[in-house]
From TrEMBL:
Pfam families: ThiF. GO terms for biological process: cyclic threonylcarbamoyladenosine biosynthetic process. Residues 23-145 form the THIF-type NAD/FAD binding fold domain. It comes from viral metagenome. This is THIF-type NAD/FAD binding fold domain-containing protein. GO terms for molecular function: tRNA threonylcarbamoyladenosine dehydratase; ubiquitin-like modifier activating enzyme activity. SUPFAM superfamilies: Activating enzymes of the ubiquitin-like proteins. Signal peptide: none annotated.
């Protein structure tokens, strides 16, 4: 069965009682989002929506398993290619542009994982998820700390000069 924890590849994790959502959207697939998208596919999430407007740049190569020949390609394309090479059954929808409510509304997802680095956008996406009653998980890395939070609306002040998403 597609993405079932009873498939041979997932048999060892069936005893953990894991909840595997049918569809997850990862917003921001550089850095943490790249690894998160890969891990979600590896544990058997059958459908992934990948959203990121950025292309691979040379400074990304020190933390991601991307060959130098991929510089200039869309990050969502590179991640989708890697996932498909490991989990061909995974259905991947790629969106190489900024996430907004129109894009998010057209996707089917149980969970949205926010791996962006803009506090303003994190706050907007958290509010979107609260309004739509979609599970929201925020994950980030600032060079010294890795954080994961769930269903928490941002309470920090946002710098008004910070660009959106």
């Amino acid at each position: 069965m597609l993405g079932s924890l009873t498939d041979d590849v997932y048999l060892r994790q069936s005893g953990f009682g894991l909840y595997i959502p049918k569809s997850v959207t990862v917003v921001g697939v550089g850095g943490v989002g790249f690894w998160l998208g890969l891990e979600l596919a590896m544990v058997g999430v059958p459908q992934l929506n990948l959203i990121d407007p950025d292309s691979v740049e040379e400074h990304n190569l020190n933390r991601l398993p991307i060959p130098k020949g991929m510089i200039g390609r869309a990050k969502v394309d590179v991640l989708a290619m890697l996932i498909k090479s490991l989990r061909e059954h995974c259905i991947i929808t790629k969106h190489p542009y900024k996430a907004d409510s129109d894009v998010l509304d057209m996707l089917g997802h149980e969970v949205i994982c926010d791996c962006t680095d803009s506090f303003r956008f994190q706050r907007q996406l958290g509010q979107y998820c609260a309004d739509k009653r979609v599970e929201y998980v925020r994950a980030g890395y600032d060079g010294t700390h890795y954080t994961v939070t769930s269903n928490v609306l941002s309470t920090w002040d946002v710098d008004e000069d910070e660009p959106d998403g």
